[in-house]
Amino acid sequence: MGKVVMYGAVSVDGFIADEHDQPGPLFDWLSNGEVPLDDSGVLTVSRASHDYTRPYWDSIGVTIAGRRVFDLTDGWDGKPPSGVEHVVVVTHRPMPDGWNPEAPFHFVDGIEAAVAKARELAGDRVVEVAAGDVGGQALAAGLVDEVRMDVVPVVFGSGRRYFGAVGAQHLLADPDVVLPGNRVLHLRYPVRR
């Protein structure tokens, strides 16, 4: 069974979006290098960022996101992002009217059910949980094995927090990756159990 990894780009002060749900410069590092990260030709990063990020992206079988992200992205037009095979959407509402039921999106009520469904779909591949409220819920429920952050040198001051509204302290192990790239610092923390 694959790991459950909480992942996202984050400002130095801990935000994944500003107060208007905009990422601002959080994804600028994805076009700030010379090495193609995918076949689109749009994403170009430093060699260090490529060698760290590409293998991780290739390991992801399923992404878990909240309904807010799903709605903000218009459900990625029914195509999971970054070549991921399935998306599990944590929501208390049914799938949107007119949504293609054949699209590889699964609408699940509650974080425990979402992680169970994602593990089933992912097999031995990684289950990625988007940072924010859903990621914080998964961490609080003890379902996250690893936290990955792409820390971008910007201060938002307010907005959507990386860990959402986690209401208790959670200790992470020492980082096992601290890797600078162009306009980004990649960090990886195992979660203490």
Automatic annotation (TrEMBL):
<protein>
    <submittedName>
        <fullName>Dihydrofolate reductase</fullName>
    </submittedName>
</protein>
<dbReference type="InterPro" id="IPR024072">
    <property type="entry name" value="DHFR-like_dom_sf"/>
</dbReference>
<dbReference type="Pfam" id="PF01872">
    <property type="entry name" value="RibD_C"/>
</dbReference>
<feature type="domain" description="Bacterial bifunctional deaminase-reductase C-terminal">
    <location>
        <begin position="88"/>
        <end position="170"/>
    </location>
</feature>
<dbReference type="GO" id="GO:0009231">
    <property type="term" value="P:riboflavin biosynthetic process"/>
</dbReference>
<dbReference type="InterPro" id="IPR002734">
    <property type="entry name" value="RibDG_C"/>
</dbReference>
<dbReference type="GO" id="GO:0008703">
    <property type="term" value="F:5-amino-6-(5-phosphoribosylamino)uracil reductase activity"/>
</dbReference>
